[in-house]
Write a structure and sequence with these properties.
29 helices; alpha/beta; 668 residues; Rossmann fold; six-stranded parallel beta sheet; single chain; 10 strands; Alpha-Beta Plaits
Length: 668
């Protein structure tokens, strides 16, 4: 197979794997592993091991360590030191120690089946201690769990595991030396690492900062990118020449850059190379899977999937509980960290090449790691049910929390529910307070909730995407719901819940841009407000004013843009002077909503039939929201049904008249 054909096979496999796994909401990394196994020599045989590809895949690990180094900062460690150096150190140490004792016991009880040396046992224990940062952090971010009590503990443990990889990358190759040379090899390796790291960190920071400043002054993206690759790969080569691993040098390079002002630019520039080469690394790992050996020794594979996962779950659960977490938080932390990790593949591959792990055991362990990572998204998705089933106190805690929330909102009707009380949500709450409009906010950040409640704001702690939280906040009795979270995936999930619980309540959604405007409306949003549009309008108005365009013309242009963009407020962007001078509140146009009762005289009529009544009162039907939650632009042939919500605009007196007319029973 030619080089071009080889590249095409890898690219096609990678694309198909990512598309399939993303479509079923699983991480792309699992897709890379799966397609590697399919095209590898042990299944379809399309691709065999290739030294050039293997070397290229190694760069994926190098860039992974480079990115980890970028995220490593002393301030971050100080903020999370209790979880990082407390629970993280206990988890890694306890997992490695206990797993080694179990493997020693296996060797003593079954010497004919388990012949692994103590060096191999130590290497496997290190592999077992790792968890998947890529899968867990991504799912926690999507589920808004990073700021929860268990989320902080999970992040702390993952951060310590990333740090622990550095000495393990030095230790495992040294374990492959002869017994009489091992101590000296290990001392030499550790000495080299200490000297190299000290020299680089002591003098490297100032040199790196100055050098990046010189490169950035040239204002060339190509030069900046070439410089990044030179630094990452150059320091990796330097550590390899010192007899250490490539990944260690890349980690040091990331650490040096993390303390410079160019950290975030570097991270965004290196991300495409990192993702591409890391995907290639996981494909080569998948190619190592020998399915014939797995089928032949399926009992071992099943044992190595279930027992280590349960063992690690118990270790993390007990460790977190001993260190002060509640039983429910400790169990959730264990569920999120029970799987194998991407660094486990790196260490396992290193152990194989160092002669510490025999090939049959390598295949069984590799298969069990892949299967545990495939199971991880499902474990996380059902973690709440597992915790509520196993921990009675957690059920009581959840019930108490929901009861407290319900007690705070049960007396409220016609209020506004704000989902997310960050910068946007708190500003909205202040405006609602000024107009004496009751509101309830939900947020998942306990510190933010505490501060808001201390200031007298009504903010409840909870996950707005969970049905019981929405019920406790009284969404079915609300007059409007506002979603201020910028994450689109979470917004879609929340809209789906709201369509089931409060299909007739108008929902206003905040987004960063308008790329998924129609999809959000189709999902149930009454109106979508993109921040990018508002920022653009303000930027344009200042620019036009500075260029000498009359202020009145600027205001008119901005109002026209808003009028075209926002369906609910179309017709409200009148002349600025008219709005400012209009002091008669009764004559101001406003919005009103009416939910049609099954007995309403308007039910069964088309929009064309009710239009004369609306026109006679100078009232406009702006939007029609079906009982299912979908929001539609009114059309003449639409038939009104029970549960439909009419959003109308007009003056207060005329609106009250129309609401009274449409609310009359049919037989009047």
């Amino acid at each position: 197979m030619s080089s071009l054909e080889l590249v095409l096979v890898y690219l096609l496999a990678a694309v198909l794997g990512v598309v399939v796994f993303r479509s079923i909401k699983l991480p792309p990394m699992l897709g890379y592993l799966a397609v590697g196994a399919v095209i590898g020599p042990h299944m379809l045989g399309m691709v065999h091991s290739n030294k050039r590809i293997d070397h290229l895949a190694e760069f994926g690990v190098v860039l992974l360590m480079f990115v980890i180094g970028l995220e490593f900062s002393l301030s971050k460690l100080r903020a999370m030191k209790r979880h990082v150096f407390g629970l993280g150190a206990v988890q890694v140490g306890a997992t490695m120690l206990l797993s080694m004792l179990i493997m020693f016991a296996l060797r003593w009880l079954m010497p004919s089946l388990w012949k692994l040396s103590w060096q191999g046992s130590l290497a496997l224990a290190a592999v077992l201690a790792m968890s998947s940062t890529a899968i867990v952090v991504k799912m926690m971010a999507e589920r808004l769990e990073l700021d929860t009590e268990y989320g902080k503990r999970v992040l702390g443990v993952l951060l310590f595991q990333d740090l622990a990889v550095v000495p393990l990358l030095i230790l495992i190759p040294a374990l492959g030396a002869r017994d009489e040379d091992m101590g000296m090899e290990l001392l030499i390796a550790m000495g080299k690492a200490v000297v190299l790291i000290a020299v680089l960190l002591y003098g490297g920071q100032r040199i790196m900062r100055r050098w990046l400043f010189i490169v950035a002054r040239r204002k060339s993206n190509e030069l900046f990118m070439l410089n990044l690759l030179l630094i990452a790969l150059g320091l990796a080569w330097l550590t390899e020449q010192a007899g250490l691993s490539l990944a260690l040098g890349a980690f040091i390079a990331g650490m040096l850059i993390s303390e410079t002002p160019y950290k975030y630019q570097v991270e965004s520039d290196i991300r495409p190379f990192h993702d591409l080469l890391l995907g290639l690394f996981f494909i080569t790992i998948g190619m190592m899977l020998d399915w014939h050996q797995i089928v032949r020794h399926w009992q071992w594979v099943l044992f190595l999937v279930t027992v280590p996962v349960l063992f690690k779950l118990v270790v993390v659960w007990v460790s977190a509980y001993v260190l002060g977490a509640s039983n429910g938080v400790a169990l959730r932390t264990g569920l999120y960290l029970a799987q194998a990790g991407e660094f486990g593949f790196v260490l396992l591959n290193l152990a194989l090449h160092s002669g510490l792990v025999p090939t049959p055991l390598f295949n069984a362990v590799l298969a069990s790691m892949v299967l545990s990572m495939i199971a991880t998204p499902f474990i996380i998705m059902y973690s709440n049910r597992i915790v509520l089933r196993l921990v009675n106190s957690e059920w009581m805690h959840e019930s108490l929390k929901m009861t407290t929330m319900a007690r705070q909102s049960m007396d409220r009707r016609g209020h506004v529910v704000i989902c997310g009380y960050g910068r946007t949500g708190s500003a909205l709450g202040q405006l609602l307070d000024q107009e004496s409009i009751p509101h309830v906010a939900i947020d998942l950040d306990p510190e933010r909730v505490r501060q808001a409640n201390n200031q007298g704001d009504s903010v409840l702690y909870g996950d707005a995407t969970r049905p019981n939280t929405l019920q406790a906040a009284g969404v079915s009795r609300a007059s409007a719901i506002v979603i201020t979270m910028g994450d689109t995936a979470t917004t879609f999930h929340l809209l789906d819940q709201l369509r089931a619980q409060a299909p007739s309540v108008p929902v206003i959604v905040r987004t960063h841009d308008d790329r998924q405007l129609d999809d959000l409306r189709e999902a149930g949003a009454t109106e979508v407000v993109p921040e990018a549009l508002e920022g653009t309008l303000m930027l344009a108005s200042h620019t036009l004013a500075l260029m000498g365009v009359p202020v009145r013309r600027v205001l008119r242009a901005v109002q026209n843009q808003r009028g075209q963009r926002y369906r609910l407020l179309r017709g409200y962007f009148r002349n600025a002077e008219e709005l400012m001078n209009d002091e008669d509140a009764e004559n101001l146009e406003r919005l009103s909503t009416l939910v049609l009762d099954p007995a309403s005289c308007a039910v069964g009529q088309t929009f064309a039939q009710i239009q004369p009544t609306l026109a006679a009162q100078s009232v406009t039907l702006v939007s029609l929201r079906r009982a299912s939650g979908s929001s539609l632009v009114p059309r003449s042939e639409m038939v009104l049904a029970p549960g439909d919500t009419l959003v109308m605009s007009g003056r207060q007196q005329e609106l009250q008249t129309v609401v009274a007319m449409f609310s009359r029973p049919t037989d009047h």
